[in-house]
Design goal:
ABC transporter involved in vitamin B12 uptake, BtuC; two-stranded antiparallel sheet; globular; 74% helix; mainly alpha; 305 residues
Length: 305
Amino acid sequence: MLQLVADGFVIGSVIALGAIGVTLVYSILQFANFAHGELLTWGAYLAWTVLVGITAVAGPIMPLGPFSFGWSLLASLVVAALATAALALLLDRVLFRRLRRRGSAITLIMASFGAALVLRNLLQFAYGAVPEYYSREIQVALRLVPRHVLGGLRITPDQLFVLGLTAFTVVALHVFLTRTTLGKAMRATSLNPQLARVTGIDVDGVIRATWIIGGVLAAVAGVFSGLTVQLWPQLGLDLLLPLFAAAILGGIGSVYGAVAGGFIVGLAESLSVPLIGAEYRAATAFAALIAILLVRPTGLFGERP
């Protein structure tokens, strides 16, 4: 049981980071961005590309302590996060910004579907369909709990790293939203964009910051997913529905709700595997979503109308 809970937290940490980007875009721009999953995939592959380049120049890098990766992956993550943020800004400038001026929310949603298809096919054309790996090092899982305690608990150092960095990211984002001028401006814009503009807030700047933060978190989530599993062109598509399930479950527009929803979805998927099989675990997550929404239609952290 403990092992399933630990696996659920690892899955949920990736989903939570991706769901934050989904809920931020919805909160500020009032539309569901279905291209967000492809930003995860592009971030993961861009990091892999940079990693391959560093390895080709500097040679194999020794792993950091017990982890399967070295400093080169962390440097690749930083570059990929910046590049994914630039890609998100490019999408907004070329597509979404023009449609915001002339179209409706439905138009933006359909445009995001089209953007997702284009990004997915471009990536598959560039990288092919063969799965890739950040590292092929074999890790020995650490036993954190004795076997006689609820079956014990084993977890790899990479999974511990993912959990730790996710917790750090969430805390840093909380501090940013509550203590910085830009973070407060983002919260004000999400509540009332027109009033925020009248009071002197640079709403266009807030929108750019939203895309940058969403792109960075998408890249981090994509790299984390690739680090604990593998890279494949359908990575973002497979994670897209859990991302939206987490955002809706936590209360669409709530960053903290997205985090809570991500962990709930991850735990639901993990705990359902021994009961109904791995092929149906996504259905369990949506069953939990429906059950919670029947009790609280606005989600866990959503505000009641």
